[in-house]
Amino acid sequence: MANRTKGRTTFEVGADGVAIITLINPPVNSLSFDVLASLKESYEQALHRDDVKAIVLTGAKGKFSGGFDISGFEVLQGGKKEQPTPAAKPADILTDILEAAKKPSVAAIDGLALGGGLEVAMACHARISTPYAQLGLPELQLGIIPGFGGTQRLPRLVGLAKSLEMMLTSKPVKGQEALALGLLDAVVAPDQIEPLGEAREIFKFARAQARKQAPNLKHPLVCIDAIETGIVSGPRAGLLKEAEAFRELVPSDTCKSLIHVFFAQRGTTKVPGVTDLGLAPRQVKKVAVLGGGLMGSGIATALILSNYPVILKEVNDKFLQAGIGRVRANLQSRVKKGKMSQEKFEKTMSLLRGVLDYESFKDVDMVIEAVIENVSLKQQIFADLEKYCPPHCMLASNTSTIDLNLIGERTKSKDRIVGAHFFSPAHVMPLLEIVRTKQTSPQVIVDLLDVGKKIKKTPVVVGNCTGFAVNRMFFPYTQAAILLVERGTDLYLIDRAITKFGMPMGPFRLADLVGFGVAIATGMQFIENFPERTYKSMLIPIMQEDKRAGETTKKGFYLYDDKRKASPDPELKKYIEKARSISGVAIDPKFTKLSEKDIVEMIFFPVVNEACRVFAEGIAVKAADLDIASVMGMGFPPYRGGIMFWADSLGSKYIYTRLEEWTRLYGEFFKPCAFLAERASKGAPLSAPVEQAMSRL
Ligand SMILES: C[C@H](O)CC(=O)SCCNC(=O)CCNC(=O)[C@H](O)C(C)(C)COP(=O)(O)OP(=O)(O)OC[C@H]1O[C@@H](n2cnc3c(N)ncnc32)[C@H](O)[C@@H]1OP(=O)(O)O
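Structure tokens predicted for Glyoxysomal fatty acid beta-oxidation multifunctional protein MFP-a-like:
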């Protein structure tokens, strides 16, 4: 809310009669209500003054504008629907003052023109931009549609198909491409848009795509409707339709959730007691990665993609060549998809150097260890690292389960030992769990946060425990699904219900993808550490014994063809029956008739319960970090705001009551934790801050 009364424009007139209006609202010159009001005033002044012949609109400090001030949405969301909201006015300012101006105006764009920023530029009579400026309408990512005329002006500038693509994917274009598209040229007359018959086909296709890609979301379809109205009934009707739809979407749950995710994502890099100490990140010039397996090669790929020179160390030449081969394959897949030129490929690969010893570790600034999960091996490695690396070097481990204190036991460098937990495939998955122990120095965390940002990951800082945040939340997810199956729920129905809820895949399809070997190994860690709340089933081990270990063996919970297409397997029944008899449970008719809502709740409430424990223990600093961890690490639908935000939308009391009931009926696996019980008894949200005293960090 701090930005609400912030920002302004400046107005200067040169001797040449050109008025320069500059948008100022750091850091991205977002369009707060104040900026918009000031823009109106400056424009009116320019139109009024005889000495002004033309207007140039630009943004301060090399950025045109990042769009409407997102923190201002809260005002609109709180406002009553019948009242004219301030958002209706800016759209009118753009149409009635900027676009209708009798004096020529040019938007001079540098850096970025996104959302409302680009919409303001499109209301000017012409646009010029630097080649690398980013121009786009990413509003759909926030659960809304462009609301300042974007649905009307963009199709007229770049054509229907491209404008639909830009809006529906939220992807910006760079200056060069924008020029080729006509976005940076004079406005194309409406009659140059596709003929109506052709347009209808394009709309039909766009609607089908939107329904397929985001079946739970309404606003992409609403966006297409607004564009269509403008094409069919003219720009005025289109603008009215857009304004009406925009007003309706702003207070929606989807918009609230996505705005929460926007700020939560930026909030992960604000860690009390760490990032508020005024520490500047030290420069990391060279990184070493230990282990060229799946994780190590993925991490090395992510690093060289962001221009970090990397030394990849393996134990013998065969493994080293295999590791380098994996990195090469990761990059080659980009070349094949047309996302990387051959020249860039060669240049990127040249940043990687394979080694078999620690000789070249004397000038590395950071090491990431990614060898197999073996405690004594890791202890030896960290003892060696202490010997060979310079004293300032960060020593990170990619372990997903082992206690970092144990890993560093044989060193005197505990203050620079940190966890850098990537998710597979490491060069693709957006999350990075930064794991700190009580000894990890704030400087090391600040450094790793900076590297994380540079390699385009969203870092979440968590405390040291088995499974950290993401794997702890995943643990009850799979277990609950197995519990349901043993009691009679159809396995494929579970995957369907969970996918419909918005997860990229259901728990069984995911187990197949990850592989049963990994599932069993992590499962063992949890049984050891949290026996009281583990649902012990033999289903996965029995299947693995029978050489069904997931997608790599072409058989798991599904059967896979050569194109990786999954199909149900009737044979599964026999494994389920066997597991059921080992667990000593019988089919419960209630479980064969569970509604999709019940399935979702029985699987996700245990996840919420575990998230509450992670939060209460201080493993996560804020509930919003768990929202981001669930969205980026588990694939939880962002339009539901993340696990804790979603839980709060249902209410702590409701979740507690259901978990209590299931505990009575089906056992300790569902038992609500003390934190959840306390919040429920007070009717308090789960995401409210935990008392400092309770935090372990
Ligand atoms: C009516 C209209 O159609 C509706 C709209 O315009 S909706 C808004 C559309 N615009 C957007 O969605 C753009 C959102 N912003 C972004 O994608 C990115 O911030 C960016 C590409 C502009 C810059 O990225 P980057 O340089 O990595 O910086 P980033 O950390 O994301 O942002 C810097 C700061 O600006 C803030 N910020 C960015 N865009 C903002 C916006 N539109 N409103 C308010 N704050 C914004 C961020 O919250 C962050 O604040 P913090 O430093 O306090 O955490």
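The CA atoms of residues 95 and 123 lie 7 Å apart.
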